[in-house]
Design brief:
Layout (H helix, E strand, L loop, with lengths): L4 E6 L2 E6 L16 H8 L3 H17 L1 E2 L17 E2 L5 E2 L5 E2 L3 H7 L8 H9 L5 H27 L3 H4 L2 H18 L7 H17 L3 H16 L1 H36 L13 E4 L1 H20 L5 E5 L5 E3 L1 H26 L11 E7 L3 E8 L31 H5 L10 H11 L3 E7 L3 E9 L3 H6 L1
Parallel strand pairs: 3-6, 8-10
Antiparallel strand pairs: 1-2, 4-5, 7-9, 10-11, 11-13, 12-13
Length: 465
């Protein structure tokens, strides 16, 4: 035996613990001839193994902080003093990488206020061109945004490791952490100059967050088999809801900001109803705008495109958010136009656009809701896959198809993520976010009816605001 080593011959294997700085132990050699003796010898290492496990867990939580799930960003290494065990064995503590930050948990536990049409209208209807109110709006935003960001950051922490290291998830994670860090470091807003700087900051963050939905779609196609449809749907729904609430809150404040500073500059802005909600949203105009874009994509991809027929109570306006309505209608009309064209070409019954059956859109409004029914003759959806059409990362566009992602059509309608199995579930999430819903009924071999139901405020509620 070497006097500087404590060697234990266990199960025909030499296990050596170097301890040059420890007191020299007496040379000891145990040759285990029976199972009982082997088990007794193992007990010598049990306290050491437990201590190592506890110290590793502590180092993981108290070690370095990073902006990346994998610790690929700038790291701060913290070397700790060597650990001395009861067995006179010194274990050097290595720098541990961790994305854990207690602030995320602290902010995530804070309560948040739900975002709905009534709250947005109420907030906007009480607007005045008062400096204190504008500053109060900015401070509310400064306090509420980190909580929403922190909740999604914690969700990404809880993803399975193999999903958390996905490059698209990492990209989203870094965007969220950067936004969180920037806003939490912003001091309280006390002057108009502070408000101008803060408004510029959150406006720039909106632009930086634009790719999130696209990257989330790409990540979903890569991690769906690792997470399963149910877990993935819950995760993506929460990400989409947070995205919508954050953007609405920021846009609402920016409307206030523009109204206040526009009045200062003599632009004559109307300040009695300042809100992101359009009180007189037109179904006819929204359908026309969305279908023209869908037709343009169809013509570019297939050379032909169907027309549409609008029926029902389409002249009646209702309060809603224009951008949300146009997004949902674009996705639904695009699907209808594509299915109609592909089915007709598959059957050899189309030579130009006049040969295509039109897409039928029926609108009906009541005091509390407006429903769009979009019907196509696109052959319907087979029974074996209709139960998956609202699953994220599910698509009926084959990878070998000419119109899969990367084609001219997919590039043209990039914002709707054609072919990535993201359009329908995100559209439903948009509708459900403000109390509506999206349902689908299909007749295999004939066509599909999609019902988009949108909640809005009844006239009595509107009069209150």
């Amino acid at each position: 035996n070497n006097n500087n080593n404590n060697r234990l011959f266990l199960n025909k294997t030499w296990i050596t613990h170097q301890s040059p700085s420890a007191p020299t132990p007496s040379p000891t050699r145990h040759f285990c001839r029976s199972r009982a003796e082997q088990q007794e010898s193992l007990l010598i290492f049990l306290p050491l193994l437990v201590t190592m496990a506890v110290r590793s867990s502590q180092a993981l939580r108290l070690g370095m902080k990073t902006h990346s799930c994998l610790g690929t960003a700038t790291q701060t290494h913290q070397w700790r003093q060597p650990l001395k065990t009861n067995h006179s064995c010194y274990i050097p503590q290595r720098p541990m990488a961790s994305f854990f930050d207690a602030r995320f948990q602290q902010y995530a536990r804070k309560p948040i206020h739900a975002v709905n049409l009534e709250a947005l209208l109420s907030f906007g209807s009480h607007y005045t061109d008062d400096t204190e109110q504008l500053i109060a709006s900015a401070n509310y935003l400064r306090e509420s945004l980190p909580t929403r960001l922190a909740r999604r950051i914690v969700d990404m922490h809880q993803l399975p490791y193999i999903c958390g290291i996905n490059p698209h998830i990492q990209s989203i994670y870094n965007l969220f952490v950067d936004a969180f860090e920037t806003i939490t470091k912003t001091p309280a807003i006390k002057t108009i100059e502070d408000e101008v700087a803060f408004s510029s900051l959150v406006k720039s963050q909106l632009g930086e967050m634009d790719p999130v939905l696209k990257r989330l779609a790409l990540a979903s196609t890569e991690i769906v088999q690792l997470m399963g449809n149910s877990a993935l749907s819950k995760f993506v729904d929460q990400m989409v809801n947070t995205r919508l609430s954050r953007r609405l809150l920021v846009q609402q404040h920016l409307v206030f900001h523009d109204a206040f500073h526009g009045k200062e500059e003599g632009e004559g802005r109307v300040l009695d109803k300042v809100s992101v909600v359009n009180l007189e949203c037109s179904p006819e105009m929204a359908v026309s705008t969305a279908f023209r874009t869908a037709q343009l994509g169809c013509m570019e991809a297939y050379g032909v495109a169907p027309t549409y027929v609008l029926k029902g109570d389409f002249t009646r306006t209702f309060p809603y958010i224009d951008a949300h309505l146009e997004y949902m209608l674009l996705e639904l009309t695009k699907n209808a136009a594509r299915a109609t064209t592909e089915y007709a070409q598959k059957n050899g019954t189309v030579f130009d656009s006049d040969d295509l059956p039109p897409v039928k859109i029926h609108v009906m409004s009541t005091n509390g809701e407006t429903t769009f029914k979009i019907s196509d003759n696109g052959g319907g959806i087979p029974r074996d896959i209709i139960g998956h059409v609202f699953d994220y990362a599910f698509t009926t566009i084959g990878k070998e198809d000419d119109h899969a992602p990367g084609s001219t059509f997919a590039h043209l309608t990039e914002k709707t993520m054609a072919g990535e199995g993201f359009g329908l579930p995100v559209t439903r999430a948009y509708a459900q976010f403000l109390g509506g819903d999206l349902t689908l009924h299909s007749m295999d071999g004939f066509g599909t009816d999609v019902y988009l139901r949108l909640n809005h405020l009844i006239p009595d509620k509107l009069r209150e605001h």
